[in-house]
Amino acid sequence: MSISTAGEPVDHLVPIEDAPPRIRTPTPPAATMLLTGIFVILLTGALRAGAGLLLPIAIAILLTFLLVPMVRLLRRLRLSAALAAALAVFGTVAIAGTGVALLATPAVNWVSNAPKSITKIQVKVRRFLRPLQKTVDEVARTTQPTVPGGARPVQIQTPSALQRLGASTARIAATIVTVVFLTYFLLATLPTFRGKLAELIESRAGIKNAESALTEIETQMSRFMLINMLTSFGVGLATWALLAWVGVPGALVLGAVAFLLNFIPYAGALVTLVLIGAAAIVTFDTVGPILLAMGGSVLIQMLEGNLVSPLLQGKHLPLNPVAIFLSLLYWGWVWGAVGALLAVPIMVMVQVVAARVPRLHSLAVLLDS
Length: 369
Fold this sequence. Notes:
Helix content: over 70%
Order of helices and strands: EEHHHHHHHHHHHHH
Low-confidence stretches: none
Strand content: under 5%
Number of strands: 2
Radius of gyration: 30 Å
């Protein structure tokens, strides 16, 4: 067959099926980076705006992975999934409640003696800062605003401390109840969820990959919890030894408080330092032992938070120390102290999943230790 175009014959036409394939132009790296940056910014805004909804879900997922081995052990005793989940969740709640009850008596005694202690602290702090008191008074007198014409300043009424405490307590209680029951439902329906996941994936290789990812996440969560327990125990032991050496009364109780509060990043260390400082100021009349107790506590917390924990987690978890530190900063900024507590588990999940998704392999390499 020949077709003449502008007087020139064409011997044949190239069939459509034999035409060369279209070459897809790859997306420029700059555009990819720009889109990734926009996605991260939007995701961060959504996480901050939806913290009230997303935080309980994230905590429940973390607790689910931590309690799965216990549920699996109970299932081997021929218990149903619902009963095994109930024993694991509500048994953990009972143990936590027992620990709180054991610390309730020292806490009540401390609160009952707080007015006397605060008075002693005020007297001693004023005496320590007496050389600077005159300068402080002069600065306050200079910066005090004056109201012309004897007019009364407008006062804006804000909620009282009791009202704020009541609102915070109610919010925390609602969050705890939500987390407990959501964790129970996740654990009770986990076998069903895995079956539905297998139906969605369909391919045998995909099912095996998903099961491998879930198993790896469970293992890493257990390892993370063990590391946290060991480092917190080390902080409590070191704090007790330091305070006993300095001569602070109640060193054992303060060491136990340091152990418990060490599970709360940043805020826990700050509260521990305040309690140790208050106990030292009430006990000693000179500045030396007070500075020794508080400085030693700061040194213990800094070594644990910036050296020991990142090194142990980077060695035994699939995250490098830089990724751990940056994740603490990011999630602490997004969700506060609770976000910092969840930072490492979240990034472990991200790394495990990214390592099994070809398109996210580069992210897994960046996070990997």
